Amino acid sequence: MKKYQYIIFDIDNTLLDFSRSEYYALQKVFATYGVVFNEKTFNQYKEINHDLWDQLEDGKISKDVVLKERFKRFFLANNIVVDGVLVDKQYRGFLEKRNDVMGGAIDLLTQLKSDGYTVFAGTNGVGRTQRKRLASAGMTDLFDDLYISEEVGFEKPDVRFFDYIFNDAQLKDLSQVVMIGDSLSSDIEGASRVGIDSIWFSNGAETSEKKYTHKVDSLKDVLALV
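That's the Noncanonical pyrimidine nucleotidase, YjjG family sequence above. Prediction below.
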């Protein structure tokens, strides 16, 4: 018996291996501007990027600021002046060439579709980039619809992101809806704010936070919960 009918999946590091794709794309970007790619510079960029995304999720800045500033600040810290918008476009170009898939993702989506679930993607990100990556991975047709923050106009965990999905898909009984994602701060927090169940895909991580309804360490464990 189905516990849920409508499943909203996060994309990055839930269905697509963003970490692997990002690693590849950053190597290309750093090389383009003559910065050595190593643990120090990689972590330096990630700290700057994460700080900006945290501010975005808190509603303090817009996505345009994130995309404009992250590479500008990183390269400036390495004594290189760049056009942040241009570098971000180059970075996303490299990112779009990747189709790194999380283990079990295709099998899970295929099974859910076969079993009659309504499956949505609910992701923060740039519309063109996310759509191209999903298409390259052969996932697009496995979703009933794609909801991407740039196109929706709001970022998870903003309740308006989820309300947009509920209204657009005409979801009335929210007890039949579950959000699945790896991010406690956007996926799980967002689900908590709008009062829907959530499945935290932990990737083996631990936390004392208990806002999620269920936890899985592997995508193959999702079927038993839905």
